[in-house]
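ugh finaly. both done.
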Amino acid sequence: MRMPVPLLLRVLFYYPDHPLLIAPELTLQTEDIVPEIPRINELLSTWQRNSGVIFNRILLAGGSLQRPTRVRHVSDVFQLN
């Protein structure tokens, strides 16, 4: 059984009555099973069915929990103007 992984979803959408006016974006962080993403698919299909929006762009980002994250510590930070 696959474990859910954290994902970030960003959706740009518009309403059919106003195709030139792109609404503010929706940004959502959730956990879902990759690559099927059933939770996100259900959210998007329900939202589109109930509100009639048209999606302009859907961006999905996430990391893999299959490999450990590397953390590096630094001793000094230099900033140039």
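ok and the 2nd:
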Amino acid sequence: MMPTELNAAAPELPTASRSSDYATLDFLILLARRRRFLLCFIFGTAVLAAIVALCLPNQYTATAIVLPPAGNSISSALLGQLGSYLAGDD
């Protein structure tokens, strides 16, 4: 047998790109068939999330940490005087 005869008799195997094209097409067909269910599910979830968000009480939390700057400088001296002024020490 000649090598060309072997290639002619062998069935054509699907390549990776053809396989992925079929998978993509099958997926799009599935989405098209389930379009109504998907839209209803997404809309229902959005409505449920909005209801829950509006029913929850507002909750605010704030924290602040003020530290004097490190080192001796004019700003640290001013902050020291400001702190004693606010504390009521004269």
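summary for the 2nd one i guess: The first helix runs from residue 3 to 9.
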